[in-house]
Amino acid sequence: DRTHILNLSCTDRPGIVARVTTSIAAVGGNIAESAQYWDRSTDRFFMRILFTTPREVNHAVIHGALRSAIDGFGMTFSLTDGDRVPGILVLVSRFDHCLLNLLYQIRVGWLRAEVRGIVSNHEDARTIAEQHRLPFHHLPVTRDTKPEQEARLLELYRDSGADLVVLARYMQVLSNGLSTALQGHAINIHHSFLPSFKGAKPYHQAHERGVKLIGATAHYVTPDLDEGPIIEQETERVTHALSADDLVAVGRDVEARVLARGVKLHLERRVLLNGHKTVVF
Amino acid sequence: DRTHILNLSCTDRPGIVARVTTSIAAVGGNIAESAQYWDRSTDRFFMRILFTTPREVNHAVIHGALRSAIDGFGMTFSLTDGDRVPGILVLVSRFDHCLLNLLYQIRVGWLRAEVRGIVSNHEDARTIAEQHRLPFHHLPVTRDTKPEQEARLLELYRDSGADLVVLARYMQVLSNGLSTALQGHAINIHHSFLPSFKGAKPYHQAHERGVKLIGATAHYVTPDLDEGPIIEQETERVTHALSADDLVAVGRDVEARVLARGVKLHLERRVLLNGHKTVVF
Amino acid sequence: DRTHILNLSCTDRPGIVARVTTSIAAVGGNIAESAQYWDRSTDRFFMRILFTTPREVNHAVIHGALRSAIDGFGMTFSLTDGDRVPGILVLVSRFDHCLLNLLYQIRVGWLRAEVRGIVSNHEDARTIAEQHRLPFHHLPVTRDTKPEQEARLLELYRDSGADLVVLARYMQVLSNGLSTALQGHAINIHHSFLPSFKGAKPYHQAHERGVKLIGATAHYVTPDLDEGPIIEQETERVTHALSADDLVAVGRDVEARVLARGVKLHLERRVLLNGHKTVVF
Amino acid sequence: DRTHILNLSCTDRPGIVARVTTSIAAVGGNIAESAQYWDRSTDRFFMRILFTTPREVNHAVIHGALRSAIDGFGMTFSLTDGDRVPGILVLVSRFDHCLLNLLYQIRVGWLRAEVRGIVSNHEDARTIAEQHRLPFHHLPVTRDTKPEQEARLLELYRDSGADLVVLARYMQVLSNGLSTALQGHAINIHHSFLPSFKGAKPYHQAHERGVKLIGATAHYVTPDLDEGPIIEQETERVTHALSADDLVAVGRDVEARVLARGVKLHLERRVLLNGHKTVVF
User: Could you tell me what percent of chain C has a pLDDT over 90?
Assistant: First the structure.
């Protein structure tokens, strides 16, 4: 059997589910998971269906079956091969906890992904790459070399065939150009509970403000820094007794978990964009 | 428009969703919410659909439209009028925090329900009933009068037309007979994180064991005490510095919340039974 | 026996604890609880001690015993009668969930306090006040009458002998003057996880931003709106499927809990100010 | 300067804190952290003090200064060198997530410890040991060889000079003899929220019961299996949609975190035994 994941959105109207699921049944599809959401404020409808079909039913066949529904309802849609292991390109600077957790979760099968390469502006992660027999790309960056470095990065991404760029504590702000080129295909972990503490050194900001919870946010990269659609968040209780450095240490766990979950949700095609927000099935 | 909620389960086979949603579309239904689950271990399929139809489409019409699907797939199913406010009968002993939270959540509209009556083996809750202009039934109970008391309770439930009996810290064990009569129609709050600390005085058991988290569990009542299908649970952090009585106090919040959520999930028909477990959509 | 609570802070130096606890022992005091914190970044030391003494040991005696330590270390300190039930004045507008939870927690003894009065710019809470036989003060406010209304409010607070003003969803911004007059003696509940979503309609802001967690913050009132020292915070998971109005409903629980905990911490003298941050023992 | 950690417990009486802190001040000690707890039900007093002294003040000097307090109050006490990095011996079977997290947290400095060796009944962890240049001891075990294997294990522990044995998903039940020998010096991670789901395969038990939260428990090893004093616990929300194997995967994170926290609390001498319960400062 083959597994397929269909994501779609369109203006809400009666009969969408019936049309789509009937088309799937028509090609011998069996629905294993489905979820839907109707945004009353925008009257927009969102759906994700995971279904299996006989081997011979390929994407062309499914497209053919769905064609009239897609056209009739004016659907935005994507069809993903659920059997193919998706590829990711991981960007990292010095902190390696998010990278290590991704590699670990891939190894034990919780995260179904293949790392196509590790890119860093530092040399620190090279050993990890070697231990895991993964391509390592050292792309140092200065203010002057940023355009070239980003061009090289984009090239690496395209050559790698990766589906997603993961900024796993990559401490460089991407240019508008690169952010735009990667939009919808790059996830960043921000080490605060956005929209609190945007920008640099969020744990130090949090310590300064005296909050009783810290957090982390996995979001899509957009040209507007720390304003991208939020995929996943979590908080952790802290006390007055922790220094800013303690918060950095405590925050590692929550960052690593939130990023891994965000990446998993994306790769399983559970995240749909709804303007600058996400629908997460 | 009318709102309907359809719950169904059957052995998994291709085409279920298409058949059901096509039947719904055929009577002019528009699907607002749907969720499904396929239990691979038992090969059983579960689905909940909330849909709207024109005024004139009543249950008989929908039944007619779904008839061949129901028969063809051997479905267990229920169709609920989504516009009718469901009724509950609340049982309480001395602690009134769960009762008060239910009344509050109903008043502010978070919980859509109508209290048909309050039943207690004590007089304490009478004032609350009077303030809310609700029928209050004092049904004291002793070992000897238990059969009659329970008979009276069941009669009250039936006369009230309530959809659900809520044991909101009702500190009497129901007999096998009454538990069976109410099966699937009675929710209890147990003041521990089941299966930890079954039976009496769970906070004292928890204190004795020195746990670092306490909890509460909303579950369906079954003849097998504290073994009913679990609907909702939550835990709360505690420390060595709290006495057993402190745990009782700290636990009030979590009990009140967990019970209210369990009742809401049930009344919105989001809970389906899967053997002695629940599917919660 | 008598119970006393001693809070103190001073520049850190060796021997503080020994001096203070020896003075307490000298008047026959037995320490039941103590907590301390040394802020390395400011080199400031904070301590809270709860101790019992024989009946005849009054505050003058304890002050006498501690005098040389207080002077020698240049301590900021306060001594509180642990047996006296502290008074609160509750300010409320239309939403009453925070008020009701305070009243409930007082009734069941989790919160040791006495409500000296309920003040509102609306009439809605009058019934609650009457049911609880509490003084109700209707102080409507317009832009023009604000100075008089606030003068009346401050007068009520002073006449009531309350230790704390609790803004339990009081939807008026206090003027700089009143904020300053009440500084350290007024706690507000802000219905967001500060510093996210300051200002008006935080749930609508949260919905707009598409966050995956909402929260509430109990903080001291300062002239700088939503910037007061944070006492307690908590978050709650939400999804894309909730509207802004749903967030308002979901948020009630977390607001009510966070405010009650903040008030309890303050009244038990567990909160010490450390600049614009708090130390919470 | 030198750092010392003093833990003590005794029957509660007035003057304990004054006596102890005065003795500390007498040798030039400056208290950086202190915490205390009075168990009203047993009238037992517990205290932990972290203090610094000049270089030349060694344990003999401190013992001398504290002698009369210790004798006078009949204290159980321990004095720990706060500057020495404590050693641990890690036992592991096939699952390596808890081991990896310990190694990671040590590397980044969150956990202050030195791994003296890794012991396993399998060969799987050898590579990890080699990458970290740590001694690896393969001690396979069968029913027949268990006595010898345990004797060897105990010998390794003693030779290593480790302060603590950490059972990081070591899937062998220790004999009564070994449990007793290690009592208070061995921490196990149980992959459930004890006392729920004792014994084997707790995630499968949890799945079978249909709980809505899973958890993990770090506890001291005692001859009475899964009944040892609990140090730390945490839960994680799950749904009906997760299989038993999914629970195993989801549980890794919570196990790894809870164990690392339990080990950190122990090594920082924050855990005191109170009968079969713990006081955690």
Answer: 97
- HSE-CB at C67 with a 13 A cutoff on CA atoms is 6
The span from the CA of D222 to the CA of C134, in Å, is 55
What's the one-letter identity of residue D13?
A: R
For residues D132 and D90, is the Cβ–Cβ distance under 8 A? no
Question: Cβ distance C236 to B92 under 8 Å?
Answer: no
Whether D33 has its CB under 8 Å from any CB of chain C: the answer is: yes
Per residue in C68-77, pLDDT (tens digit) is 999 999 999 9
Q: Identify the pLDDT of residue C81.
A: 97
Cβ(B92)–Cβ(B170) below 8 Å? yes
Give residue limits of the domains in chain C.
2-81, 87-280
Distances (CA, A) of B52 to B2, B30, B49: 5, 5, 10
Complex prediction ipTM:
0.94
Query: What does the angle CA D74 – CA D77 – CA D82 come to, to the nearest 5 degrees?
Result: 155
Task: Give residue C137's Cα distance to chain centre.
Answer: 21
* Contact between A226 and A267 (Cβ < 8 Å): no
Q: Per DSSP, which regions of D44-181 are E strands? A: 44-53, 76-81, 87-92, 114-120, 136-138, 164-167
Residue A83: alpha-carbon gap to chain centroid: 18
Give the N- to C-terminal CA distance of chain C in Å, as an integer: 24
Question: Helices then strands (H, E): number in chain B?
Answer: 8, 13
Residues in chain B predicted with pLDDT less than 70, given as ranges, are none
Residue A203: enclosing H or E segment and its boundaries?
helix A202-209
CA distance B263 to B231: 9
The pLDDT value recorded for residue A225 is 87
Q: Please, what CATH class does the domain formed by C2-81 belong to? A: alpha beta
C22 reaches D (C-beta below 8 A): yes
Reported residue count of chain D is: 281
Domain boundaries C87-280, CATH class: alpha beta
Whether the Cβ atoms of residue A21 and residue A66 lie closer than 8 Å to each other = no
pLDDT, tens digit (0-9, with 9 covering 90-100), for C163-183? 999 999 999 999 999 999 999
Half-sphere exposure of D23 (CA within 13 A, CB side): 17
CB of B13 within 8 Å of a chain A CB? The answer is: yes
Facing residue for C36 by CB, picked from D13, D16, D34: D34
Asked whether the beta carbons of A231 and A187 are under 8 A apart, the reply is: yes
**What is the interface size between A and C, counted as CB pairs within 8 Å?**
83
Chain A CB contacts of D108 under 8 Å are: 97, 249, 252
Q: Under 8 Å CB-to-CB from A147, ≥6 apart: which residues?
A: A175
Retrieve residue C63's tokens.
């002050």
Burial of C140 (0-12, 13-18, 19+ CB in 10 A): exposed
CA distances from D275 to B142, D42, D278 (A): 39, 10, 8
Reading the block at residue A87, the tokens are 């590829």
Give the number of C-alpha atoms closer than 13 A to the C-alpha of residue A43, restricted to the C-beta side: 5
For A119, B215, B261, C178, D266, the CA distances from B187, given in Å and listed in that order, are 54, 17, 11, 49, 41
Q: What is the dihedral sign for C-alpha A224, A225, A227, A228?
A: positive
- Based on its alpha-carbon atoms, the radius of gyration of chain D, rounded to whole angstroms, reads 20
Q: In the A/D pair of chains, how many CB contacts fall below 8 A?
A: 21
pLDDT for A136 equals 98
The one-letter amino acid at D220: Y
Contacting residues of C for B97, CB less than 8 Å apart: 104, 108
CA distance D249 to D244: 9
Q: How far apart are CA D8 and CA D77, in angstroms?
A: 4
Q: Residue D214 and residue D235: Cα distance in Å, rounded? A: 5
Residues from chain B that touch C110, judged by Cβ atoms under 8 A, are 249-250, 252
Backbone phi and psi for residue B198, each to the nearest 5 degrees, phi listed first = -70, 170
pLDDT of C139 over the 90 cut: yes
